[in-house]
Amino acid sequence: MPDTSLYPIPHEPDPLNQAAPNVWQRAWAPVRNALMHSFLGRWAGRRAPNWFERLLPASLLARFLLVMTLGVLASQLIGNLIWASYLKGKSEQEVSQASSHVASGAASAIQYFQTLPPNFRHLVIEQMREMGGTRFFISTNDSEIHLHSIAPKPLSNLVIEQIRHQLSAQLPQLLDLKVDFSWPEELTVANDGTRIAELPDHWIKDTLLIQPRPAPVLVIQAQIEQGQWLYLATLMPDPFFLDNSNPLPLERWVLQFATLLTVLLLSWVVARWITGPLAALSNAAEAFGKGESPILPETGSVEFVRTAQAFAAMRERIVRYLEDREKLFTAISHDLRTPITRLKLRTEMLDDDAARAEFHEDLDELDMMVKGALQSVKDSDIHENHTSISLDAMLGRMVRDARLAGHEVAFTRCGLRVHGKPLALKRAIGNLLDNALYYGHSAEISVFEGVGKRVIVIRDHGPGVPDDALETLFDPYVRLEHGRHSNSHGHGLGLGIARNIIQAHGGELVLNNHHEGGLQAVIMLPAD
Fold it and tell me: Which whole-number Å values give the CA distances from 102 to 27, 216, 221, in the listed order?
């Protein structure tokens, strides 16, 4: 099977553009101006770097949604960072003030109990429990009680550090100091393992919050003398201050996600409004390039209406130009045949046989050039409807005809189809097959499926073509020395006609030398 992966696909200029660039430029100018004066046209005029273009998706709708998604995500990220920074600063300030207030109260309580005789401390504690109304739950122990600490969090660590620092500064005579947070269900208040939940309700109902929603309890244990620890348990002024440790709770993320979906939905609707007319214009231009006569509806935005009107005017001018071109070539061919015939008759009256033969040869060549020019115009403008074409059927008939004529052609069925004009494609492929048989004596036709395309490779077993001459083979009346010897009746127009037909079908034709010898023509057509 021929190896086509090594051969690049050149983008040749359209021969019709070469023949009449001013006509095409004048026809396209209104459409171009209408687009460039619209919003999208102004953005389309700004070219991005190549690396950036490769990162972007292909469609305008996908690009618009991508930009909107990134924009919304960036704005949400910046907004969340600002909001989180503000809440963090505010929470730390509030917690710092509350910690200072709690530390002052704890310092006063510790100083008070330090002034009491040891025997009176239990009496005062019992009176406080019975009377209630105190900030702290207070007890005394002969050693430190080991607590089940809560999971460390920035705000709880800030409270612990600040209270420990303030108490150490106000009460330097303390032998030891422990500050920590614990959950009520795990909080132990005595050396014998008594838990806070086992105490009478009136001891703690005004001090600690256990039900219905437990709050972390701040425990301060101060060693006021040897074998004597003062135990203070209380709540922060805001018992649920730890909720502020997470400035971006789940509810806020859900809101952000809902906002993103809403913006994307609205962006999708707007993008469809914008890209819908552009897609219609693209389809109409593609259909017109294939010989159809599409009509764009003049509805929608002002920019699209102007573009549709400009496209319709361009289509009419191009159609008139093509009709005038065909009429012109037909008239020229008709008008030239009469003087050529008269010259041939006059040549017969010459007495010099050598001169008469030379005149006949020149006139025959001129007649062939006129006929070839007319054929080139007609073959490139075959009026047919597009239909689904079986490559096996079309190529099979061409191969059978070639074999009946005594030629050697190899072909393997592929089961693939293309969409196009049957007669036009048959003429294009037939020109390439004729060249392969004329100049290579035998041919191989291979068909395989590419990514979104059908690839037809026609290879001959001739001498090939010099690399520097490959680009000139599509030019009119260009024939290499080997071609003139193998086929003296050719005009040098077949390859140009084949390429024009294939390009009109949205495909490409590439000629290159096969690495094992011979020339191969690679036809790439859009998939059906």
Answer: 85, 14, 14
